[in-house]
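Hello everyone,

My group is preparing for a crystallization screen and wants a predicted model to guide construct design. The compound we'll soak is flavin-adenine dinucleotide. Before spending weeks at the bench, it would help to have a computed complex in hand. I've included the protein sequence and the ligand's SMILES below. Output in C-alpha cell form would be ideal because that's what our pipeline reads.
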Amino acid sequence: MQIPPIETTRIQPLNHKHSRDGKYVLYWMQQSQRAEHNPALEYAIAEANRIRLPVLVVFGLSQTYPEANLRHFTFMLQGLQETKTSLADRKILLAVQKGTPPEVAIQAARGAALLVCDRGYLRHQKRWREQVADAVDCQVIQVEGEVLVPTHVVSSKQEHAARTIRPKIHRHLPRYLLDCPSGEPRLSSLDMNMESLGLSDLNKVLKDLRTDRDILPVDRFFKGGTRRAKKIFADFTANRLERYPENRNQPQTDDVSHMGMFLHFGQISPVWLALTVYRLDSPLSEPQEVFLEELIVRRELAVNFVEHTPDYDRYSCIPAWAARTLDEHRDDPRPCFTPEELEAAETHDPYWNAAMKEMKASGYMHNYMRMYWGKKILEWSREPKEGFALALRLNNRYFLDGRDPNSYAGVAWIFGVHDRGWPQRPAFGKVRSMTAKGLERKCDIKGYVDKVEALCQRDRSRADILNVD
Ligand SMILES: Cc1cc2nc3c(=O)[nH]c(=O)nc-3n(C[C@H](O)[C@H](O)[C@H](O)COP(=O)(O)OP(=O)(O)OC[C@H]3O[C@@H](n4cnc5c(N)ncnc54)[C@H](O)[C@@H]3O)c2cc1C
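Reply:
Good plan to model first. Here are the C-alpha cells for the complex, ready for your pipeline.
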C-alpha cells in the first residue's frame, strides 16, 4: 500500500532560521513519546535522509515538571524505555537527559543541521518551544501529531461546545485520517557519543529522581508503553467496544478503552486509534461512531479550549452566565467539606468516596464518575472558586492522564464550560447538577462501590479485568 507523505498543514516552522551544516537532524521528542505513527519522527527521518545525515532523538527529563510525581514518572519512563529500544531497532539513538526540556534541546541543537519538535498545547509547552526556536541557530520545525485535525485548521477561536466544533472537524477528517509513513533512516545514530540516562534499570532512575514521592506508582493496574496500549486497545475493540454506547455511562463496568493515559504521554497515536476503529466495519456501527465522537470531537474540543483560553487553569475561564449563577447561590445551605476531608475520601456519600478511592489507588476513574466526582466538589466547597482549584489539583495529582488538555476542559465543564444552562438547583444555580439519587436510578452504583472495594483490597488487578498480563 502506498502511504502518502505527512499532511503539510501538520508542519510549521517556528523560526525563520535556515537549516545549516551539522552532524545530525535532531528530533527533540517531548509530547509524542513513541517510535511509531509519529509524524514528527518521520519528518525528521525524511529530512535526514534527504541531506544524508543520521537522526538523533533527545528527551528532556525535567525533575521540576509542573505537578509531576512518582506515579507519573514511573508510567512515563516505562514508555520511554520501550521507545528507546524500538528506536534502536530503527538505528536511531534516543538520549534521555536530565534537565528542563528547553535546556536539553538547546544543548543538543549545537551539532544539529535542523531541529524538529512535536507539539503540546499547555502554556509551559508552548513557552518551551518558543524559547528553543529563539535560542538555537538552526531552523526549528514543529510537526503536530497529537490530534486528528491540526488545531489551526479546525478553528481560530474558542469553540462553545461539541456541537459547534463537530462540523468543523468532520469537514476535514478525510484529509487527515491517513496512515503515518514509516521511513528507514539511511544512516545510523546508534554509535553517536551522547550522554544519556540508562533506562535498563528503571528502579535506579526512579530512585535518583527528585520528585514528589507521596503519590505511589500504580503499575499493579497500568504500565506505560506503546505495546501495552495496543494490547489493551485490541482487547477493547474485540470484546468491549460493542457495549461502549450503553456502558460508557455505567461505571460498574470496564467497557471503556483506558487509552487516556497513553494518549496523554503520547505513547499511542490518536490517528492510529481512530483509523483502527474506522477499519473495523463499514458503514460505521453505533459503537464505532460513539467511540470516535469521544476520541476525536470531545478530545479535540479540549485541545481547542486550552489553545484559545489563556486562563484555562483558573476559575476566571468559566462563562459569565455560570459565574453569575454560582455567585447567586454561594450561600445556599449544603454540606461543606474541607480539602483534607475530600482528599481523604471522608464524606457522607459512599459513591463519591469510592470514586476518590479509585482515583487514589489506581490513577484512573470511569468518565461517568469523574463527572459526579467533580460536580460534588463544586457543591461541597465553601466557594466555587476554591472548588475549581481543588478539583484541578486532585485531578492532576492522582490521574495518570492528569495535566492534559482534557483535565482542564473536564474540570471547567463541571463549572459550565461547553455546557448550557439547566433548571435552577441549590448550590449549582443554572449549572448542571448531579445527584446520588440520579446515580442510583441510572446505573448499578452499588456494583461500582463493590468494584472499587475489590480494587483497593488487591483482590483484582486492572490487568485481570482487561485480559492483559
Ligand atoms: C471532571 C473531569 C475530569 C477529567 N479529567 C481528565 C483528565 O485529567 N485527563 C483526561 O484525559 N480526561 C479527563 N476527563 C475526560 C474523560 O473522563 C476521560 O478522558 C476518560 O474517562 C478517559 O478514560 P478512557 O480512555 O477509558 O475513555 P474512553 O471512554 O475509552 O474514551 C476514549 C478517549 O476519548 C477521549 N474522551 C473520552 N471522554 C472524553 C471527554 N469527556 N472529554 C474529552 N475527551 C474524552 C479521551 O481521550 C479518551 O481516552 C475528565 C472529565 C471530567 C468530567
